[in-house]
Amino acid sequence: MLFGKEHVDRYRETDGAEGHDWQGTVTLLLTTTGRRTGRPRTTPLIYQREGDAYLVVASKGGADEPPLWYLNLQQDPEVQVQVKGDRFAARARTATPEEKPGFWKKMAAVWPQYDEYQAKTDREIPVVVLEPV
């Protein structure tokens, strides 16, 4: 099973032939700009399509603090996304309170652990919308 840097490297090298399908789900690569370093940071994330956009969840396994990639995109929402061999620029935003319930249900349908993660923390875990630009 691919994880972390190895997941990112194999995904890139194979245009997602290795790494896109992961534990019964599908993943994309999200590249944010480090808010302290200014360097690109790439994270593999489970996703679902929503029209032309892509949904991802900033869960960090239910930790009380958000994942670093989420903090990065709050400072700079201009990101790079790779889905299989397709690479594109996108703008990231947190789902609105009106959007979130439906988006959460869609994401938890493919990764039920999201509900467990939310139960572990008082932090409201955001759903992030990646809109191609």
Automatic annotation (TrEMBL):
InterPro entries: F420H2_quin_Rdtase (IPR004378), Split_barrel_FMN-bd (IPR012349). Gene3D superfamilies: Electron Transport, Fmn-binding Protein, Chain A (2.30.110.10). It comes from the Bacteria. It catalyses: oxidized coenzyme F420-(gamma-L-Glu)(n) + a quinol + H(+) = reduced coenzyme F420-(gamma-L-Glu)(n) + a quinone. SUPFAM superfamilies: FMN-binding split barrel. Belongs to the F420H(2)-dependent quinone reductase family. This is Nitroreductase family deazaflavin-dependent oxidoreductase. It comes from Actinomadura sediminis.
